[in-house]
Design a protein that fits this description.
Elements: H1 3-81, H2 83-106
């Protein structure tokens, strides 16, 4: 090979490396944009899931509050309908609790 052929090959290699460098830069940029898009999609999806979970939790909490209100209302109706039995049961439960506490202290 003569010197002009070697220089010509070196120039072609430099051009190929320059093209390769540009292609790699373009690919890196495309991957970065793609990653950013996927990250934004994942962030939006997670945000939607959190919003739906919060809404479901609020509905469940409200349903639990409503059930507890109904239970308290039912208990009030029961106590109001049988006041003497309610007082006797409260006295008995208190007596039993006092005896259990007294046994625990004596040990």
């Amino acid at each position: 090979m003569s010197d002009p052929d070697v220089y010509d090959e070196i120039r072609k290699l430099r051009d190929d490396f320059s093209t390769l460098q540009s292609d790699v830069a373009d690919l890196t940029d495309a991957l970065r944009r793609s990653g950013a898009n996927h990250l934004e999609d994942a962030r939006a999806s997670a945000s939607d899931q959190v919003r739906r979970s919060r809404a479901r939790l609020r509905r469940q909490a409200e349903a639990a509050r409503e059930r507890s209100r109904e239970a308290v209302d039912d208990l009030e109706d029961t106590i109001g309908g049988h006041p003497m039995s309610s007082v006797a049961m409260a006295f008995g439960a208190g007596f039993i609790a006092a005896k259990l506490i007294d046994l625990g202290v004596r040990r």
